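note to self: dont lose this again. the chain is below, predicted strucutre after it. 216 aa total, dont forget to put it in the shared folder this time
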Amino acid sequence: MVGMFVRHATLDDLDALASVEAACFPPKEAADIESLANRIERFPQHFWLLVNPDSSAGDTCFPAQLEDGMLVSFINGMTTDERDLHDDMYSCADMHDERGAWQMLFGVETAPVYQHRGCAAYLMRRVILDTAIAHRSGIVLTCKERLVGFYESFGFVDEGVSPSNHGNALWHQMRLMLNDDADEVTSDSIRRAMAETTSYLDHNGTSTGQFRVLVQ
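---
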């Protein structure tokens, strides 16, 4: 992801976010522009955007242009003390609790021209790192059965079919623990994210000492 950078969302990003959302999900599953706006207003720091500053490298016909480049991927979701992700969370941004123990993820999305290049994986590792630094208990998301293996590669555990029927679809609930019992796969994801994010390295390329054991 050389040259690309990660930042959080503002309302100026709304059109590009809505375009990628519509490209990645069927209409019944995609958040509409009003829902995305409500989320940004309520929890902008829980939107992670991967941006390519070289706009010419993307698909100029695809409307995902930002002021500082092209939107490549984005991940978003609220935090809460509730352990399970349920349908009301998608539409009710006011359920967000900044002190919540669990980071819920509503979508992991990549613009079509950038898909299958490792962009979503790169951004997911950053989300895992930031969530660990925030001392949350873990991350919860739901996905289609065909994506279970992808999320397991980061350390997520499949908890079976979710009670959610968002978009009238069948979902699996996946959970990533970020406590002292986190497995080696999760720890490896965090180490890789730290290596990819130079602000978390000291002058000789080793991890800074400011984090708890899990992320050192």
